[in-house]
Structures are given as C-alpha cells and as structure tokens.
Amino acid sequence: MKAPAYSLGLLLVIYIVNNVDRQVMNILVEPVKKDLGLSDGQIGWLIGGSFALFYTVAGLPIARLADRANRRNIIAVALLVWSAMTMLCGMARSFPELLAARIGVGVGEAGCTPPAHSMISDTFPTVKRASAISIYSLGGPIGMLFGLAFGGYLADQLGWQAAFMVVGAPGLLLAAITYFTLDEPVRGTFDAQGDRAIEPVGTTLRFIAALPAIRHMLAGSAVQTLFLAGVAAFHSSYLVRVHGMSVTQAGLWLGLIAGVAGGLSVYTSGLFADRLGRRDLRWHYWLAAAGNLISLPFSVLAYTAEDGTMAVLWLAVATLGNHQYSALGHAVLQGLVKPRMRAVMSATALFAMNAVGFGVGPVVVGELSDYFGGGVELRKALLALIVFMFWAAAHFLLGARTYLRDLEAKNA
Q: What is residue 183's DSSP assignment?
C-alpha cells in the first residue's frame, strides 16, 4: 500500500493533464476561428456547449459505477479516452469534425473527478479533507497554466493542430502509470460503519435534494462557474483583439494568472477553511462568498482597461478571489453525504457546474459578442456576465445558514 501522499500526488498530475487537454482550446480560439472560418457563437459551442453537454450526460452513470467498482480502473480508462480524443482534435479540418472530437474529450473527462473525489475522501480524514481536495483542485489552475502558456507557444510555432497533438500524447503514458501504481482505498475508512451500504441512485438524489446547504452550494457553484467559464473562454481573444497581444503573449499571461493567482486562491482557501472551520464550519461558505464580492470591482476594471498590462493585472487580482469556491464547494459536498454517495455527489456537482457553467457560459459570451458586433466589442459581453457573481454569492450566504444543521442530518 503506497503512502496517501503518492495517491494524492498522482491524482493531482492526472487532474493537471485533464485541465491541459480541456483548456488548450481556450488559447487556440483565434487561430482555429481564422483557419476554419468560425463565428464567436460556434467557438462558444466548441469550448462549452458540446463539451459540457456530453460531459454531464456521461458523468452520472460513470459516477454510479465508481460508487460500486474499482475507481482506479475507471480513471485509467477515462484518461486514455480523453487523451486520444484530444489528439484527434488536431486532425479536425471542419467545425463538425472538431465538435465531434471535443465531445469525445468531454465524455472521457467525465470519468476523472467523481472517482478521484471519492478516493481522496477515503484516503484522508474529515479534518484534512478540505486541504487534500484543495491540493487535488490545484490541477485546475496548474493545468490552465500549461495549457494556455504552452498551447499558445505551440500554436504560434507549429500551428493549432500540432498543439492538440502534443498536449494529448502524455496522457497515454500516464494512463498506464495510473493502472499499475495507483492504490484503490477502502471505502468509508473514516466514516461510521453503518454508512457503508450502497445507496440506490434515487435515494442518493433525494438525499441531496433534501438538504438546503447542498442545494445552495450546487446553485452557487454552478452560477459562478457560468461566469468564470464564460469569460475564460474568451480571455485570450480579448487580449489579442482589444490589446493587440500575440497568441503566445496572451497564453503566457493567462497561464501565469491561472497557475499562480488561481493556484494560490484554490490552495489557501482549503487551508483557511480547515483552520477557521475549527471554530465555525460555516466559514466554508463565508469564504466562498467573500472571495466573490471582493473580486467584483477588479473584474470590472479588467474589462474596461485601456492598457493591456493593467487588464492583465486586474484579471490576476480578481482571480485571487473568484476561485476560492472551487475546492471549498467540493469539500463541503463530500462531507454532507454518506461514503457510497460520494462519487454520485461529485458527479451531481460537476453536472451542475458543467451543464450550467461550461455549457452555458461560453455560449452566452460568444452569442453576446456576435450580437454586439464581435471584434473589440467582445468586452461588452464579458462585462455583461459579472452580474452572475452577485447571484452566486447570495447562494453561498444562504447555504451557510443551514450548513451545521444539515451536517447533523447526514447521520440521522
């Protein structure tokens, strides 16, 4: 049996690859758009709508399987699938071909996080779970760092097709490493013995729906992801069109923002939540709401800046606050359900965040950009989405009101 640190480290690497393969499309928007003659609306569907639709459809049945079967094997197969489909994106020569390949990436990536969250929850005790999931969640910003910075450089040097091929290839080797070296933990190790029975899907979903703290965390996370996924899909286009940056420059700056500011936000939110949570567990919700509200004015400054350097600076400051919800939300939701519900809980959260967030956000920004006239008018579409941050913060504050009571209800 390998040390918990090895399992968490390998899962982190897998999640980094997951996000590299998902996010590289964001930095390739302008060259893909030009080469294939696409509109911003079609780009929105490539980044969000099609990917998220099939990600969410595949997510629940895969998660249900993860609550019964070997989670390591599920992750290894999923990794193999999404890596191969990422490489196929590089072979696309039309919008329908690229759309089909992106759908394949979405189906494969649906098999990553639900079983990973379940494995982490069975590897670390409750008092360390938020920190452990925060470390795993660092795969998001780190993956964005490599996907955006490296993808932008590859696009300028070799073309967007080669960028897809290069970032997809490492996952094939990693799938074999996962299958042969990742341990499958015992379920419910840190939970009451009576909680280990496999729950029917209907029972699990009714349990989730019955707790207000879960409902508000799901709603808040979904709405905030709508904003973040929508604007992130077009940040590179914003810097290229409005501020005259090259794809390589935009990718480097956005990658650093995601990797440094986003990573710092995700990691410290878990540490603060575990520390403050010893006094009052509702800090898990309060920190998410505070991050939202603090980031709002900096988002406005970023999209109204007349100088590219200042736009990048304000985006970085906003990212420090608006990414706090990510790891906190998953840690809260994993703690509010029973062990054999955890993969389905994770998939339900990802369903909400992907269907509403990744599914709707990029499409809304793309269609709004086309409505406003495209080109530099893209900034109006980005500004329009800021209203969703107020909405998300309201859900986090409402969820805190019943969190302690709902934790008790879990074991009733």
A: -
- CA angle (80 as vertex; 331, 14 as ends), nearest 5: 35
Say how far apart CA 402 and CA 249 lie, in whole Å. Answer: 46
Q: Tell me the three state secondary structure of residue 197.
A: coil
| Domain region containing 232 | 4-180+196-410
CATH number of the CATH domain containing 62: 1.20.1250.20
- The rounded distance, in Å, linking the Cα atoms of 116 and 131 is 15
**Nearest one of 353, 357, 343, 335 to 111, comparing CA atoms:** 343
- pLDDT-above-90 percentage for the chain: 42
Residue 74 lies in a domain: yes
- d(CA 271, CA 408) in angstroms, rounded, equals 23
Per residue in 69-121, pLDDT (tens digit) is 899 999 999 999 999 999 999 999 999 999 999 989 988 888 898 899 889 88
**Within-domain flag for 191:** no
Residue 207 token pair: 């349990």
Residue 272: inside a domain, yes or no?
Answer: yes
**Which pLDDT band, with edges at 50, 70 and 90, does 133 fall under?**
confident
Angle at 256 between CA 252 and CA 262, to 5 degrees: 145
Q: pLDDT tens digits, residue range 214-225?
A: 899 999 999 999
Q: What is the pTM of this model?
A: 0.75
Euclidean distance between CA atoms 346 and 25, whole angstroms: 24
CA distance between the termini of the chain = 34
